[in-house]
Design brief:
Order of helices and strands: EEEEEEEHEHEHEHHEHHEHEHEH
Distance between the termini: 53 Å
Structural class: alpha/beta
Helix content: 25-40%
Strand content: 25-35%
Oligomer: single chain
Strand order of the largest sheet: 7-8-9-10-11-12-13-14
Number of helices: 10
Bound molecules: 2-phosphoglycolic acid
């Protein structure tokens, strides 16, 4: 009988029966089934228990040919990008708060820090909020200390990965070609991809915002990508975390330009999210802009009330569009 122990908990399993015995209330997850693949041993199922909700269950990663995140016929995508925040205790409480709500016509995605992925997946299991990775390596495995492979994200319950965020481009010198190779790796691992593009303030003031974004699209979006596996996020760098939101005319012009670029490549159905200081107070106006398919939310996703406010605006926009 396979057994595994995590501090004061004991998990035992035999065919048809699974037992989790905990001496103290805990929230934890254990890999249940390991399979050998070309890339090594992978966990394919997780069992979990959650002290806060008293729930227990199993997470079974979906097969690689699973319907894409967007294949659910849902109109507005709202993603929470936690970046390198918050402490785990706050993260758990936030996920519980997210799990308590759902919003008609809205697909919600959480991009937590990688070490939290399984726990957040557990907290959101059975809800309509998906989890995703904030980045992945372009190789499937190997000697890359500190990096995370797309297949590992998928094993931990991720359905999608964020790529080419301006903070990764700035902090880690990621260029368009690298983003494209990461996207290819993610797609091979069965993940959908959300690729970020956006200009700096200098570039906008120089009048080259559209040209810069077009170059990023050309270089970052892999040729021949299946439209149903791709989402884009337009995030003007000068609006990220600054409280400065782009004006609706600026958003409309850039989203229309991106839409034209997509249409030329047979990718017209790809949603374009806006990101950069989205808040409950400006979300209705942003979602009212043609070609805005949702929002990528940083700072405001760290407060459940604010994130829910943005999701409510998304639900209003979805109802108005349907
Ligand atoms: P922000 O971040 O909402 O804090 O501006 C958005 C992002 O970087 O994705």
């Amino acid at each position: 009988m396979p057994e595994c122990y995590a501090r004061s908990c004991k998990l035992s399993a035999r065919p048809g029966q699974l037992t989790i015995s905990c001496a103290v209330p805990v929230s934890a997850a254990w890999p249940l089934q390991m399979v050998e693949t070309d890339g090594g041993i992978r966990a394919v199922d997780w069992v979990w228990c959650d002290a806060a909700s008293g729930r227990a269950g199993a997470m079974v990663p979906l097969p690689a040919d699973t319907q894409s995140v967007r294949g659910r016929g849902i109109e507005v995508i709202i993603a929470a990008n936690w970046k390198m925040n918050p402490p785990l205790a706050d993260a758990a409480a936030l996920a519980v708060a997210y799990a308590a709500d759902s919003f008609d016509g809205v697909t919600r995605i959480l991009f937590p820090p990688a070490p939290y992925l399984v726990q957040m997946g557990v907290r959101l299991d059975g809800t309509d909020m998906l989890v995703g990775g904030q980045d992945c390596h372009h190789n499937a495995s190997g000697a890359h200390t500190g990096d995370v492979a797309a297949g590992m994200l998928a094993d931990c319950g991720a359905r999608v990965v964020l790529l080419g965020h301006s903070e990764r481009r700035a902090d880690h010198g990621e260029d368009d070609a690298l983003v494209a190779t990461k996207a290819a790796a993610a797609l091979s691992a069965g993940l959908d991809v959300m690729i970020c593009v956006g200009e700096t303030l200098d570039q906008r003031e120089a009048g080259s915002a559209e040209a810069v974004v077009t170059v990023q699209l050309e270089g970052s979006v892999p040729a021949g990508i299946d439209a149903s596996r791709l989402m884009l996020a337009y995030e003007p760098v000068w609006a990220i975390g600054t409280g400065k939101v782009a004006g609706v005319e600026e958003i409309a012009a850039m989203h229309a330009a991106i839409q034209r670029w997509l249409a030329k490549r047979d990718l017209a159905s790809v949603p374009i999210l806006y990101g950069g200081s989205v808040k409950p107070g400006n979300a209705d106006a942003i979602f009212g802009v043609p070609d805005v398919g949702g929002a990528l939310v940083g700072g405001a996703s760290l407060k459940a009330e604010d994130f829910n406010g943005i999701c409510s605006a998304g639900a209003r926009a979805a109802a108005a569009r349907s």
